[in-house]
Amino acid sequence: MGNDTKVDWNTRGKSxxxxxxxxxxxxxxxxxxxxxxxGGETLLPLELxxxxxxxxxxxxxxxxxxxxxxxxxxxxxxxxxxxxxxxxTLPISILGKSGKCCVLRYFGD
Length: 109
Known about the structure:
With about 110 residues, the protein is an alpha+beta fold. The protein has helices at about 10, 15-25, 60-70; strands spanning about 15, 35, 45-50, 55, 80-85, 90, 95-100, 100-105. The chain has one domain.
């Protein structure tokens, strides 16, 4: 694969399909989901933007998967982290575990 076709994993983002697949990999589906805009240093309440719809509040992995399944027919829509402090949205770079939480993380500037 040449450098001209390389995709930067931290800015590529995730579709609903990609995110749900990653969420299914967690053994504990009752784990709460948080987000981080600084690579995992600070955990924040969940705020996502999908196709103009804001998803906020406390959700477990299972609840978030069910929300996507019920409310969106197109699994290729991009899921973005909503950042009020940066006044915009950011891609989900990677998922991880922090303590007893699943964390949707942005790595970047």
